[in-house]
C-alpha cells in the first residue's frame, strides 16, 4: 500500500471532519522522499566525512585527537563554579590522574604542537569539542568555505603527525 492510499484510507475511516479547515480531503498529500538523517549524537567530523568534505584519513586523525583529548581528562582543568571562576583543587588532583591519562595528554600536546597556530583553534573546536566548523566560522568571523579549508589543512597536518 502506498503512502497516498494509506492517507486516503485513513481519511475515509475518520471522515472529512479530521481534515483541517481549508484543506481539500480529496487532494493527495505531497510525498517527500526519505532522506537519510544523521543520528542525534553524530559528531561534525562524521557528518563531514559522510558529506565527503573530508577524507577517511582526515576523519581518523581527527578522531584520534578527540580520543586523546578525552582520555587526557582535560575537563578537570575546566571545572568552574556558577560565577565562571575556576574552582580551587581539592586534594592532590594531579595524583588522581592515571598513567593512561598522562600518556593521552602527552600525545595530545605533541599533536597540537605539530599544528600551525592558525589551524589549532578550528581543530580543537571541531575535533576535541565536537562543535561544527560553521559555528567556529561565525564566532571568528571567517567565511564558511575558508573555515572548511582551514579545517582540512589542520587535519592534513594531523595526518602527517600521526603518520610519523
Description:
The chain has helices at 3-14, 44-50, 56-71, 93-96, 99-114, 120-128, 133-140, 144-163. With 164 residues, the chain is mainly α. The protein folds into two domains: 1-35, no CATH class; 44-163, Butyryl-CoA Dehydrogenase, subunit A, domain 3 (Up-down Bundle), CATH 1.20.140. The chain is globular and about 65 Å long. Residues 50-163 form the DUF6456 domain. This is DUF6456 domain-containing protein. InterPro entries: DUF6456 (IPR045599).
Short description:
The protein is mainly α.
* Element string (H = helix, E = strand): HHHHHHHH
Q: Give helix % range.
A: 55-70%
Question: Which CATH architecture of the largest domain?
Answer: Up-down Bundle
Radius of gyration over C-alpha positions, nearest whole angstrom: 24 Å
Decide which structural class fits the backbone. Answer: mainly alpha
Gap from first CA to last CA: 57 Å
CATH topology name of the largest domain: Butyryl-CoA Dehydrogenase, subunit A, domain 3
Coarse shape: globular
Mean pLDDT, rounded to whole units? 77
Report the CATH C-level class of the largest domain. Answer: Mainly Alpha
Please give the domain count: 2
Treating each run of at least 4 consecutive H or I residues as one helix, how many helices?
Answer: 8
Low-confidence stretches: 2-14, 30-37
Largest sheet: none
Task: Kindly list the characteristics that best describe this protein.
164 residues, mainly alpha, Butyryl-CoA Dehydrogenase, subunit A, domain 3, 2 domains, 8 helices
Secondary structure elements and their pairing?
Elements: H1 3-14, H2 44-50, H3 56-71, H4 93-96, H5 99-114, H6 120-128, H7 133-140, H8 144-163
Amino acid at each position: 500500500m502506498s503512502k497516498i492510499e494509506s492517507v486516503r484510507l485513513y481519511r475515509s475511516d475518520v471522515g472529512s471532519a479530521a481534515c483541517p479547515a481549508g484543506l481539500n480531503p480529496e487532494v493527495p498529500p505531497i510525498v517527500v522522499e526519505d532522506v537519510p538523517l544523521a543520528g542525534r549524537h553524530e559528531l561534525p567530523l562524521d557528518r563531514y566525512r559522510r558529506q565527503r568534505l573530508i577524507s577517511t584519513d582526515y576523519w581518523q586523525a581527527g578522531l584520534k585527537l578527540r580520543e586523546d583529548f578525552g582520555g587526557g581528562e582535560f575537563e578537570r582543568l575546566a571545572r568552574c563554579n556558577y560565577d565562571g571562576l575556576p574552582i580551587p583543587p581539592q586534594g592532590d588532583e594531579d595524583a588522581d590522574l592515571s598513567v593512561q591519562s598522562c600518556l593521552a595528554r602527552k600525545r595530545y600536546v605533541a599533536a597540537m604542537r605539530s599544528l600551525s597556530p592558525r589551524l589549532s583553534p578550528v581543530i580543537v573546536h571541531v575535533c576535541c569539542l565536537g562543535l561544527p566548523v560553521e559555528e567556529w566560522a561565525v564566532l571568528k568571523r571567517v567565511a564558511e568555505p575558508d573555515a572548511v579549508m582551514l579545517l582540512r589543512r589542520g587535519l592534513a597536518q594531523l595526518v602527517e603527525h600521526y603518520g610519523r
